[in-house]
Amino acid sequence: MRKSRAKKRILLPDPKFNDTMVSRFVNGMMYDGKKSLAYTIFYNAIDIVEKKVTEEPGIETFRKALNNVMPAVEVKARRVGGATFQIPTEVPQRRKIAVGMKWMIGYARKRNEKSMAALLS
């Protein structure tokens, strides 16, 4: 028998924008428990976006970018008879956000820029 699902933890919103999505992003970006450094990097990236890229608030640009990155469909393996088929399935909302954040952080780290704030922006 399978174990029960893990309970969803309540995440505190970030101090500047009062948004739990930002907290989740910063938690994914953080190394070695250095959350204050991760917050500083994120806020610097938002400031760079506000100054250089767009005239709208940086947090709105972050939300748009996250929505553009989030997957709508993923394939899951299903065994039918003796064969394994890749069946496209819709992604649950919570997983969409998690995968989108993971992709944004991963691709930002692979870029060639001076600082992580510049990479993210």
What does this structure look like?
The chain has helices spanning 20-29, 35-53, 58-69, 93-110, 116-120, and strands at residues 73-80, 83-90. It is an alpha+beta fold. The protein has a two-stranded antiparallel sheet with strand order 1-2. Helix 1 crosses helix 4. The model has no long low-confidence stretch (mean pLDDT 89).
Short description:
The chain is α+β, with helices and mostly antiparallel strands. Helix content is 53%, strand content 13%.
Count all strands and give the number: 2
Q: Can you give the mean pLDDT? A: 89
Shape type = globular
SSE arrangement, N to C: HHHEEHH
Distance between the termini: 46 Å
Number of separate helices: 5
List keywords for this structure.
13% strand, 2 strands, 121 residues
How are the elements arranged and paired?
Layout: H1 20-29, H2 35-53, H3 58-69, E1 73-80, E2 83-90, H4 93-110, H5 116-120
Antiparallel strand pairs: 1-2
Helix pairs in contact: 1-2, 1-4, 2-3
